[in-house]
Amino acid sequence: MTGTAVGALDAVLLMGPTCTGKSALSLELARCFPVEIVSVDSALVYRGMDIGTSKPSMKMREAVPHHLIDTCDPAEVYSAGRFRRDVLALIEAIRGRGRVPLLVGGSMLYFRALTQGIAPLPEADADVRAAIDAEARVAGWSALHAELARLDPEAAARIRPADAQRIQRALEVIRLTGRPLSELQKLAEPSTLRLERYSLLPCGRQELYARIHARFDEMLGAGLVDEVRRLHGRGDLRGDLPSMRAVGYRQLWQHLEGDCTLEEAVAAAKQATRNLAKRQLTWLRGDESVQWLRSLEDQELGPILQAVSRAVPG
After folding, report:
1. Which of 12, 49, 56, 197 is the residue whose CA sits 20 to 30 A from 36?
2. How high does pLDDT run on average in the chain?
3. Confidence band, pLDDT 50/70/90 cuts, at residue 126
4. CATH of region 11-118+188-311, choose from 3.40.1370.10, 3.90.180.10, 3.20.20.70, 3.40.50.300
């Protein structure tokens, strides 16, 4: 079961919006306990996507074991279902070594897949997706969102009219199964793992946005445009792949495709990152089991220290 009852834990979850200091705190915990870090990030799994994901350096990974980083090629589709299978196996293996699985990241869909289970959904179908994309090019995604609202109003209420990826998936599920996505999602089986969930509380909104902008500028200075250019030049990647839809990569890909200037791409990437942080915070505030920690510069680590201590296999 999940929750905060006193007793042994199977794993500790460290969540939070982007740019709130999760990585720094996870390394601090690893200095105090026999921790192995499991990344809960939908972009860190891809090889060759280092700068735009703020991927931990090899030095960090040598000092503290990290998992689910560089596990697949950007041409592959890494799904929430695959994450759940991988992370369940990792939790068992890490605990078998007498160590603590510390799950760190901001991909809320992945956290939900772990804690609430995965619905029996069909695998992606390239032909169906191509057909939906073709319809979107003619009618626009807002029209397809309206179609989704007619077929699955519950799912449509959760999906923004501009969220092409989720609209596409919801319609794909309906066309492949004849059943609404929202109906199938209710068939998921929650995890029986004993977990405690913590989230770093972000600083004020303006300070958080300033951090987001500064970090993206640092990425640009470190060669992010060249990194995306190398991926674009491979020839086997498309802008609609999950890897290339990652924030920052999507906008710079559009620039390299000639759809916008570099300045416009940078502005769009910063806006997309701010929007991501807001969505992450909304999701976390809706989860009553999350225990909040103040920002890393001014927090008391007592609760999460106690949780990690309880998760050390006895």
Report:
1. 49
2. 92
3. confident
4. 3.40.50.300
Phi-psi region of 3 (alpha: psi -120 to 50; beta: other; left: phi over 0): left
Amino acid at site 166? R
**In the β-sheet with 66-67, what is the strand arrangement from edge to edge?**
66-67, 35-40, 100-105, 11-15, 195-200, 290-293
In degrees, rounded to 5, the angle at the alpha carbon of residue 231 between the alpha carbons of residues 226 and 237 is: 155
pLDDT at 296: 56
Q: What is the pLDDT of residue 2?
A: 39
pLDDT band at 299 (very low <50, low <70, confident <90, very high): low
**Structure-derived torsion over alpha carbons of residues 78, 80, 82, 85, reported in degrees to the nearest 10:** 150
Report whether pLDDT(165) > 60: yes
In sign, the C-alpha dihedral spanning 290, 296, 298, 303 is positive
The CATH classification number of 126-185 equals: 1.10.20.140
| Residue 297: per-residue pLDDT | 52
End-to-end CA distance of the chain: give it in Å, rounded. Answer: 19
Domain ranges of the chain: 11-118+188-311, 126-185
